[in-house]
Structure formats: C-alpha cells, structure tokens
UniProtKB/TrEMBL annotation:
Gene Ontology CC, one term: cytosol
The protein's name: Beta-ketoacyl-ACP synthase II
Keyword field: Transferase
GO biological process: fatty acid biosynthetic process
Gene3D superfamilies for this protein: 3.40.47.10
Biological or metabolic pathway of the protein: Lipid metabolism; fatty acid biosynthesis
GO MF terms, alphabetically ordered: 3-oxoacyl-[acyl-carrier-protein] synthase activity
Species whose genome carries this gene: Chelatococcus daeguensis
This protein's record includes keyword Transferase: yes
Amino acid sequence: MATPHRDKHGRPLVVVTGMGVVTSLGEGKTDNWTALTAGRSGIHRINRFAIDNLRTTIAGTVDFVAAEPFCAPALSEQLALRAAKEAVAQADIGRPGDFPGALFMAVPPVEMEWPQREALAQAGKRNGETSYGTLLAGAETGRFKAWHELFLFGTVAARIQDRFGTKGSPVSLSTACSSGATAIQLGVEAIRRSEVSAALAIGTDGSVNPESLIRFSLLSALSTQNDPPEEAAKPFSKNRDGFVMGEGAAALVLEDYDHALARGATILGFVLGCGEKGDGFHRTRSSPDGAPAIAAMREAIADAGLTPDDIDYINAHGTSTPENDKMESMGCLAVMGERMREVPISSNKSMIGHTLTAAGTIEAVFSLLTIGEGRIPPTINYKVPDPTIPLDVVPNVARDATVGRVLSNSFGFGGQNTCLVFAAEPA
C-alpha cells in the first residue's frame, strides 16, 4: 500500500481537480482566460434597470444569463449552476448527480428586494388597507410562496445540492468580500481533518441592483467615473476613486491528493495554505496599520509550509478604492520585505469588477490558471502611477512568467480577511 501523501504539518494534501467560472467576460475558463490575458474589460453601462439619478451607472453584470429581474438569489443560483457544471465535468468525479463529497457555498446576503416587497404589500391590502392576516395568507400561495422559499438564506446551496448530489448538509456562508475564499478554506479544512475525500467549493454573486448601488454609494465605495465604463476600475492607480460592482461565480472541486491519484484524476494544482484574521477596527474600513491583513497573509504562507521568498506572484484583492489598495500595498511590503518591489501583483477586478461574495473563488480559478498557463493577467487602466504604491502591478499588458506559487488575497467589509496559497507542486 502506498504511503499517504502529507504536507509539512502532517495533514492530507489538498488538490484541485476541476474548475468552472462565469463572469462578465463570458462563460467558462477558456473565454474568461482569453479575455483576461488580453486585458479586455467586462464592465459596461447597466442596461438591466433604469439608472436615472444614480451616481454610478456601470457594472460588470452578467447579461447573458437569464434570471428573474431584481432577484439576486435567482441569478446567483444560475451562475453557480453553470460554474459547478464546468468544474464537476472537468473533475470527472462520481456519477452524475452523485458528488462524493460536501458542498461549501458562498452566497450574497439574501433579502427581498423592493419590487417583491411592493407586490407583497399590494397583495396584503383589503379595502385599501394592509391587513396582516391577508398578508400572511397571500404569502402562502403562488409566486409569493415561491419568493419565500427563494429568499431563505440556504436555498441556493440546497438547490445546488439537489442538482449535484453533494453529501451531508450544504454549508452556506456570507463573510463579505472574503466569502469565496472562505468557502475554499472550509473545504480544505474538511479534507485535512479526513472528514471528506472531496469537496465542492462555490462562490456566487448576482446582486447588482439599484438598492445595492445606492447602499455602496452612500458608503462612498463605488467609482463614479462612468465614462468610459471600461476605464473606471483602476487598482493601484493614483486616480482610483472606488470599486465597480461585478457579478459572477466560480467552483472548485477539491480532493485529498491520494483520493485523486487513486482514481487517475488530472491535478490542476495544490491548495497549500489558508490564512484568516478578523479585523474589529470598523464595520467597513480596514485597520489603518494593515495588521489583520498582514497576519492573514503570513498565516497563509506559514500554513503552506513556505516562506515569503517562495511566493512568485500575488493575486491582489485590489478593489480600486483609495484605502484598500494603499492598505494592501503596505501589507504586502510588510510581509514580503524589499523583495515585494520585484514580485508581480495584479488585480483582475480592473476587468471584471468586484464580484463581492464570488471574488475569492473566481480569483482562485484565475490564480490556478496563472500557474498552469505561465501567464500573469494584467492590471489594466494603469495610466497614473501612485508613488505611495511602489509595486510591480503588471501594468496594462499580460506577462509570460514561470509561476509556481501564488498568494491570493481577499479582504472584506466587516473585518473579514482570508488569504490562500496555490501551487503547482507540494511544498
């Protein structure tokens, strides 16, 4: 019997055997990677709903996927379904509808949006006034009952479980902009504890709507440089003014290395390290000293059994907000030292926008493609360098490079910081 493969901490090694992705650049790894490395933007003027009087009128919406308007769970489900189908098909794992492992799923915060609220209120009126009894009765029938089921927090994951036959109770999580990375982390940890031999990790977000745009605008978080749309997201540039919302989903099939080898699976890469650190400084702002983000990066590298000198490339969180980019730059310099001035770091959010709950999983797919293809996606729209960010941001044009190990950062509102290390080979 072969000796089990273990990492430097004595835990089962975790590999990726399947990946799927959907963004505003297109559906599937091939279309996304082609557009990404060509420096093409998927950000455009919003045409899904009226944008009159909105300060921000652009986003990286996924307009080629049909879903009920103003219904983030419905679109999030469709995006997740497409990404998961691609990932599971590539992994060629189990029988159709019988995935041999658990589901860990990052989904956006779920709440009924204004069109549904107004329709429900109208249905609850009797003699021109809203009756609580009539409201409850109406909620139990027809489309209102369907809405009730759809807007339950765990519904999207439950429907994905029904489709793919994942085992156990699906885990739904929402940890702001680090959610997708956290879903991967939970899958990795379950495999390391030998609770499962395989896991399906998904991050999905289809929540571009007027209310979310208004809320982020009130936080002064969004770019208002609407024209031209494709130039609005400019991470690490001096003239950056906020992030651009995006939509998308990605899925990864994670496996115990020995389980994957035994069934002859193709190994796409290793998930060597996970780092997580909470930040209690503010509900939306990051700690000015960057300490929690620094701790998360260091923890991920140490968890991988590596040192900062082993990292070849950093997939930045890189939102294009003035504060985040400065904090991330400072954090990377603290972790990597002077070598950071030579380590390439780039942000795909310059092209797809900030996909929020899905960002960590989408960027995991792009990180693994960077390793596999030997090509680093650029940070586009980099025309005005910021002298306070002295980094190699792979400006505007993709770069061929040998990349063996990637640190992927995800820093979210509410102090959620999750970092992952991907590699071509075990440490």
